[in-house]
Amino acid sequence: MTLEPPVTTSAVAVDLTAVVIAVSEDTPVVLVRRPEAGGRAALPAGPLQAEHGTLQAGLRSWVERQTDLGLGYVEQLYTFGDRSRPADDPARGDGGRRLSIAYLALVPPLDTAVGRAPDPRTAWMPWYDAFPWEDLRSDPEPWRARLRSALAAWGSAAPKGLKAARTERVRLTFGDESSDWDAERALERYELLYEAGLVPEAAWDAGQTPATEVLDGAGRPLAIDHRRILATAVSRLRGKIKYRPVLFELLPETFTLLRLQRTAEAISGVALHKPNFRRLVAQQGLVEDTGQMEAETGGRPAKLVRFRRDVISERPAPGVRATATRRGSYP
Amino acid sequence: MTLEPPVTTSAVAVDLTAVVIAVSEDTPVVLVRRPEAGGRAALPAGPLQAEHGTLQAGLRSWVERQTDLGLGYVEQLYTFGDRSRPADDPARGDGGRRLSIAYLALVPPLDTAVGRAPDPRTAWMPWYDAFPWEDLRSDPEPWRARLRSALAAWGSAAPKGLKAARTERVRLTFGDESSDWDAERALERYELLYEAGLVPEAAWDAGQTPATEVLDGAGRPLAIDHRRILATAVSRLRGKIKYRPVLFELLPETFTLLRLQRTAEAISGVALHKPNFRRLVAQQGLVEDTGQMEAETGGRPAKLVRFRRDVISERPAPGVRATATRRGSYP
DNA sequence: CTCTCTTATGCTCAAGATGAGCATTAATCG
DNA sequence: CGATTAATGCTCATCTTGAGCATAAGAGAG
Predict the structure, then answer these.
(1) What Gene3D superfamilies is this protein classified in (chains A, B) (predicted)?
(2) Which residue is nearest to nucleotide D5 (CA to C1')?
(3) What residue numbers bound the domain in which A36 lies?
(4) Low-confidence spans in chain B with pLDDT less than 70
(5) Same domain, A72 and A29
(6) Cα–Cα distance for residue pair A142/A145, rounded to 1 Å
(7) Using the CA of B278, which nucleotide's C1' is the nearest one?
């Protein structure tokens, strides 16, 4: 390898993969292609075409045609192109490499009921189906305890010198009895489970059959490496809402503060302290009154507010970061 | 476009582009290929090869061979592949598209004096040569005032409905008399200057000759879209040091707290308040004493400290964010 | 051998931001 | 009408930040 100008190399298939996220009834959902019987659902993906002026335009144009929704927000996530991508990938063929440029897109809650979707070949899948352990809104302990004990076993099984490092990684990503985990580390947690062989993709990618006990409670696998791509999106989105007002892309024009909070909770997977959440939103000037009220609250009617678009990328870092409540205090 | 499995499309040349950053004598530098006489410097780039197991491994292996330095830290930056990428790109050829997967790499200060480099065809270029306006460590005003007035003119020249939006964008990215700008928005600033035609690449990419006044003070252009890639790296790195301890990848094994601060300042482009910076570092437990002292300080000798590697990805968010001092208070 | 200069290091203080509760208000549903 | 369900408002103790001041410990000049 030299520093000479790059030259074209071996055949590379490039596709654009979309992680389209919506929030439906406090559940974050992702657009997937329906699996055939027994198969795994896949993220929508399409080949990069010559007509596409920009990568993002390519992604945007065909997703919009598919979903009939305006994609409010689109950002490039990551480019996946490791040769180790599994052999059951139909696009690989003849020793070529497949490159997937993944994008994250957010759409407002319109026709996003789970199961229904704009195209009959697609469906909205709750993302916590893929990562049940990432939802700590109600009772976090069942999942955490199980995964931690499985991972502890993996740590103990490590070769001599690696034991401490593995144990420490588990502690950092999954927390321990005394400390919560960091919601943003969803990708690291998935990767750790993969390495530990606790998700079936690990065995499949190695050409083996996963042990059955592995499948229990390990979440729903997606095609190829799509669960990893989804985990990347979850991590990115959880980080992003802390400093950019992207939550509003997931909400209708007008909404109540509780709905905003529930959306934040759905994404981050933790329950938030209501008064503090409101204070945060208020002092940041992110929303303004519409003068209307929402009556269907089940209790006292709530003000309907709207996002102040003119503040969309204002100075410091608007967005919704807020304190988690102690466990169990969700509703 | 359908949701069918992706198929191989038109020829795509894929290369891995590296933004290798070091800090030399309080100056952030980037590794570039020396330009031919009159030409523009380019970032090192090499084609993606079939042997590369992972993209990052590919990037890492050949950069390490080139520089004889261990790349402490490598992360994927962004994939550039817009069709509008300029025509003087030697790798494009026959209507094919070029895809560049850019990586950010950090190396410790070893042989990184400006101008010297591991390979005679390469050089370390101060990144503020490309973005003089991004260095606000001493006196920010000369650049800011000039760019703001040029951009104000661009705003005023906008078609009727766009005027307000343009003016607002300028205000958000470049700040105004009363407010500083956000150091992380380096990429947005470059892109705004590009759109406004204030950097020569804008004219070149359009196949035109830039007006000479444009060139004055607009920084040093790089080959193709490499200045944009570098701006992406600057923004990413400035954001990253706030919540991950990556600064240490840019420092030798042991260092003084002032050197750590100067490195943070070099990257972020702003002068920091010394006592507060120390307090921050101390309370985060990022460093530990070595017991040794550094005598060459010019004043009272300073303790030599070292980064606590075991804390490298600890819970909340270690890293170096700190308050900027008011202007002019650098040294 | 002091005085001066330079940088290291420590301390204090006032604001602001955060984490956790408690109290009131206003609808709906039997 | 009383119970239930939310919406909204307020308070308080802690942390965290932004800024400035004071002292300590070397090198060099005179």
Answers:
(1) Nucleoside Triphosphate Pyrophosphohydrolase (3.90.79.10), Winged helix-like DNA-binding domain superfamily/Winged helix DNA-binding domain (1.10.10.10)
(2) A299
(3) 12-130
(4) 1-11, 66-70, 82-96, 110-118, 139-141, 177-179, 212-216, 297, 311-331
(5) yes
(6) 6
(7) C9
